[in-house]
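INPUT
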Amino acid sequence: MGSETSIPKGTRDFGPVEMTRRNYIFDTIRDVFRLFGYLPIETPAMENLSTLLGKYGEEGDKLLFRILNSGDFLSRIDQSVLPGLPSASLSPMISEKGLRYDLTVPFARYVVQHRSEISFPFRRFQIQPVWRADRPQKGRYREFYQCDADVIGSDSIYNEYELLKVVDEVFTRLGIKSCIKINNRKVLAGIVEVIGEGNRIIDITVAIDKIDKIGIDAVNSELESKGISSEAVKRLQPILFLSGSSKEKLDALESILSTSPTGLLGIEEMKKLYSYIDNDLMSSEIELDLTLARGLNYYTGAIIEVKASDLAIGSICGGGRYDDLTGIFGMPGVSGVGVSFGADRIYDVMSALNLFPEHDTGESRLMLVNFGGEEEKYSITILNLLRKKGICAEMYPDQAKMKKQLAYANSRGIEFVCIAGEDERTNGQVTLRNMLTGKQETFTPEQLPGRLA
Amino acid sequence: MGSETSIPKGTRDFGPVEMTRRNYIFDTIRDVFRLFGYLPIETPAMENLSTLLGKYGEEGDKLLFRILNSGDFLSRIDQSVLPGLPSASLSPMISEKGLRYDLTVPFARYVVQHRSEISFPFRRFQIQPVWRADRPQKGRYREFYQCDADVIGSDSIYNEYELLKVVDEVFTRLGIKSCIKINNRKVLAGIVEVIGEGNRIIDITVAIDKIDKIGIDAVNSELESKGISSEAVKRLQPILFLSGSSKEKLDALESILSTSPTGLLGIEEMKKLYSYIDNDLMSSEIELDLTLARGLNYYTGAIIEVKASDLAIGSICGGGRYDDLTGIFGMPGVSGVGVSFGADRIYDVMSALNLFPEHDTGESRLMLVNFGGEEEKYSITILNLLRKKGICAEMYPDQAKMKKQLAYANSRGIEFVCIAGEDERTNGQVTLRNMLTGKQETFTPEQLPGRLA
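OUTPUT
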């Protein structure tokens, strides 16, 4: 019966310790989102496939989990077409719903569907799981949480700045030293334009996105192999390695891009963003990184990506501006900008760097031994008193041997055990045992909360 | 394109106001679970169908949402069998996973799978959505949350008592006056035994479960139509309408059930439970209700159901003891008891009775008007100061007309607007406008947090 006690590959159970740590991350992100005035929404796990299909590219469509129609799903189709039918053709006949692949497309659908109820600019956050039929591998799962904050209906660069503040505040609270890399899609578009390969932006950005991983030489080879002229590749080099402060880089770029209106607009946006940043004091390092491209092609302005400074791991947060996300649902011209935190990567960083707070395990701080009879009743009054004071506590449910009860407290890592046997009860007292030191002291029940505080 | 901005029937979007209210319910339940020492776990949305099938009866199997296998799912089956194949036969060939139908079966699977890591008795809570392909109707959804707390690995009646305390504490905190009805499956078994219909417990309990809805006469007709002897139905009547205090009812039942060992065991369990309850002071009314049967046939001891006293609506919480839940996964003899809160019903009760707290909408308390330029920078320093004090606040992102900015604050229901224009900036002051009263006052930025507290 082994298969009945397993779970689908790429999915996970979370036990109490992991849950407490994960909730610490989620609660921190949620608190910051709320502090900054973002409003919570939730959307259903299932969306109509018409909402999801075609939004994530061909590869994304393949990674959608599809829900089999309920009931006698074959009765609605002409069965004579079945023999030899490819899966891809049968699938839409027997499946109309899919599991959400990210939070961005459901958000766009939500905005269009609820446009009449929403006050724009709309600042929303959403923390929910998403599902992808990806090949499971280390650190990649088929069910994982995304934590997104977006502002939609405003093209002010102030929103970009504020999202950097959100990112900075979240990682400061979590104790993760972070480096926020920023770039701008319009600047990238300007660059490919002035090197004479304006219609090759995707190939070029995909290639230069890999500089950190494969190095400049391999990137240049890839560019040439994709048919980018060697003249263009040559012109590209100094741009990718501009040096100096962000201001110096932007000034240099401004003159390089002087013939590209799009590029100049990007420079203007970047300068505006820096005018906010320079006026502020953030904990995170902020780095203008012209090699940052990010794969998602719906970005049209700022793009950001965050890395942990003290651990070599992929990005722990990313985002950017998109100018026409709701256009796919018939509501064009609404600009938005957002960031998404990857809870699993953040969890891995915090585990590796030992950043989780020690004290708050969410566990009972105290267990009362169960002696049954009148002693049990006496212990219950003590338990009620502790809980009234907000102290997380429990009593062993059975009148088992003391040794067994203490072993349970030990295995749970409970800090204190409270012994209220016949002697204690008749004297109106309790004995408190520190499970770590073994030290025992006797108090009145009323003194107990103060001793645990 | 209407279909692209709709969601599957029976599912819902939750906007900011609903989210804040729902989170208030979830947070209250979670806080109480934690205070009582229950530990959080989460399981994947998808389980293997082998885990889910056969656990909820034939009807339940039909209500499972099944996930279509990924990739070329037809390539693994013999296509010659396809023509004329019923859906029910094709389904297991092309689908191996399903969405979780409740939290109890995944919990049983979790306990068996992780038995070596768990300290028993294991007190866990779990708050997650579940999915059922039920016919959508008012108050019934295809995606809804369950909030469960269970203790597994202890048959002490103390656990039942403690779960009643949890229920009482949750509804007290939420401000819902509640009536907790309790009964015991062993008592019901004893009753059908002594009226001479011992093997008809399911038909009889299903019928008497409807007394509240259809009345005693209709129940009696149903019993007779199901072939219960009129002698048995006659004998049943006085038992269903025993009067007096719970103690008097239990004493009377004890002599009625004197020939049924199972019935007497049930009476003993009930008396033990009452020995805890009588010793305590709960806000909820506790009622021994012998007509309470609950549909779920895995209950073997106590059964409980909670109703709101001030609103005629179905049960808002239910639960009971099950003696062999993990047996289905090859780990027999582990007794457990649990309760499940229905967040949607609780939401409906709180809405109808106006019980949601007015003040905490989770919204920004203050919006700063955006004047652009130096004034914008000055406003940002004020915003940073407010957020540092933990005050939820935002600035309008664009330098729009004052009228537009104020209209936005109004439509969002934001309480205060902060105006820091050129005059205020040069004098180091801010003007605070109460959007409800229209009253304006001028302070220094440092005085502001105190004015909002």
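end of record. Chain B touches chain A through 110 residues (CB under 8 Å).
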